[in-house]
C-alpha cells in the first residue's frame, strides 16, 4: 500500500482474558499519518469472520542501540498503552520520566533492540481492547532478559512510583511474537 512501510504480523504470547481478546495483530509503520483514512481502511479490510480495530498513532520518540537491527521473525514486542492523568503538569512529568529515566533503564535489558513511544490520534472498529492516549512499544530479541534483574530495575524507582500513582487508568500491556515481516 502506498505510504505504508513493511508490515509485521504478530501473535500474542501473553495470557488471553476479557481485556486482551486479540490474539493476532498486523502492524504497519505509516510514512504520513495525515494521508490515512481509517474509515476507508475499515470498510476495505472488514470481514464477518474477524474483529478489526484500527488505531492511528503518531511517533513521539524513538531509541535504538547503535548498529543493532530490529528483530525479524521470532523477535518479541512488548506494547504498553498508558493513560496519565490529563493535566499539563502530570503530562510534562510523564514525558520527562520516560525520556530521562525509563528508556535508559530499558536499554540495559539484555536483548532490548528498539523502543518507540506514540500518541493516539484516532481509532475505529470493534475497540475490543483498551487503547490509551499513549503507547510504548519495545522490541526484543527472542532470547532476552524480560522479567530478569535489569527489567525489574527498569520499573523500580521513586519517579516510576510517582508516575504510576498519577495514571488515570491501569496500563494495558501486551506481549507479542513477530511471526513474520511481510515483504512486497
TrEMBL record:
Protein name in the entry: EthD domain-containing protein
Amino acid at each position: 500500500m502506498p505510504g505504508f512501510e513493511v508490515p509485521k504480523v504478530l501473535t500474542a504470547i501473553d495470557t488471553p482474558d476479557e481485556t486482551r481478546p486479540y490474539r493476532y495483530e498486523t502492524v504497519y509503520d505509516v510514512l504520513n499519518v495525515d494521508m490515512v483514512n481509517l474509515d476507508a481502511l475499515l470498510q476495505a479490510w472488514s470481514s464477518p469472520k474477524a474483529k478489526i480495530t484500527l488505531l492511528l498513532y503518531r511517533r513521539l520518540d524513538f531509541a535504538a542501540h547503535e548498529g543493532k537491527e530490529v528483530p525479524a521473525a521470532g523477535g518479541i514486542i512488548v506494547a504498553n498503552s498508558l493513560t496519565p492523568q490529563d493535566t499539563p503538569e502530570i503530562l510534562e512529568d510523564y514525558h520527562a520520566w520516560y525520556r530521562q529515566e525509563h528508556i535508559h533503564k530499558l536499554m540495559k535489558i539484555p536483548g532490548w533492540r528498539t523502543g518507540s513511544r506514540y500518541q493516539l490520534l484516532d481509532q475505529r472498529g470493534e475497540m475490543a481492547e483498551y487503547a490509551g492516549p499513549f503507547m510504548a512499544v519495545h522490541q526484543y530479541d527472542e532470547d532476552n532478559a524480560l522479567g530478569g534483574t535489569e527489567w525489574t530495575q527498569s520499573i523500580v524507582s521513586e519517579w516510576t512510583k510517582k508516575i504510576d500513582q498519577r495514571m488515570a487508568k491501569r496500563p494495558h500491556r501486551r506481549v507479542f511474537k513477530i511471526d513474520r515481516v511481510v515483504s512486497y
